[in-house]
Design brief:
By secondary structure, the protein is mainly β. Helix content is 0%, strand content 21%. The strands form 4 sheets. The protein has a 6-stranded parallel beta sheet, with no helix packed on it. A 4-stranded parallel beta sheet has the order 1-4-7-9, with no helix packed on it. Strands 3-6 form a two-stranded parallel ribbon.
């Protein structure tokens, strides 16, 4: 099994069922690597780079990504709870959808003030996630549970909320031109107006 160490460049490596819990990894880069069934909970990646990597069935519970960079990386069925995504290095990143999350748990994550147009979060959960002041233009939240997620002064133009559930988004404090929603959850958008909706839903 390949070990992950500091100051190492990894290319096209496969990391399978690796456990690095509560440890620190710094200044390493991962280019086109595949991570499957790995546990990185409570660890910290400092100034690391992940370029076009894939993560499947991995545990990143309260993992820190201090000064690290993620480019065109994909997460599937991963636990990514309590991560402060603002601690990453976003300088110079202009690509659309730097991260894709499929069937992941992003609850209690912080994305505050990040520019992430085209972000993809589908078929997952993002309870209590902080999306305030973000640019999420053209993002996808399809079939995602957004219970208590925070949207305020957020750019949601052309976003896809099809089949998303439990969201509260105030149309008065967010930009939502061309965004898509599904019935009956779209009724949640009226909650900010303190009105009564009569008739069958």
């Amino acid at each position: 099994m390949i070990d992950i160490k500091n100051d190492i460049d990894y290319e096209t490596e496969i990391f399978f069922q690796m456990e690095i819990v509560g440890q620190k990894i710094s200044n390493s880069s991962f280019d086109h690597c595949n991570f499957s069934g790995c546990d990185f909970s409570e660890s910290e990646f400092i100034a690391c780079r992940f370029i076009e990597c894939e993560f499947k069935d991995c545990n990143f519970n309260v993992t820190k990504l201090t000064g690290s960079r993620l480019l065109e990386s994909r997460f599937e069925n991963c636990k990514l709870t309590g991560i402060n995504w603002t601690s990453l290095s976003w300088t110079g990143i202009t690509v659309s959808a730097p991260m894709t999350f499929e069937s992941c748990d992003l609850s209690f994550s912080v994305f505050h003030s990040l520019s992430l147009p085209g972000l993809i979060i589908t078929n997952g959960k993002a309870w209590n996630a902080d999306f305030e002041d973000c640019d999420l233009t053209h993002a996808k939240f399809t079939n995602t549970d957004l219970k208590d997620a925070r949207f305020n002064r957020t750019k949601l133009n052309m976003c896809d909320f099809s089949e998303a559930t439990n969201y509260y988004i105030d149309p008065n404090s967010n930009s939502m031109v061309g965004a898509s929603f599904s019935f009956p959850e779209v009724i949640n958008l009226l909650a900010a107006f303190d009105i009564n909706v009569k008739g069958p839903l």
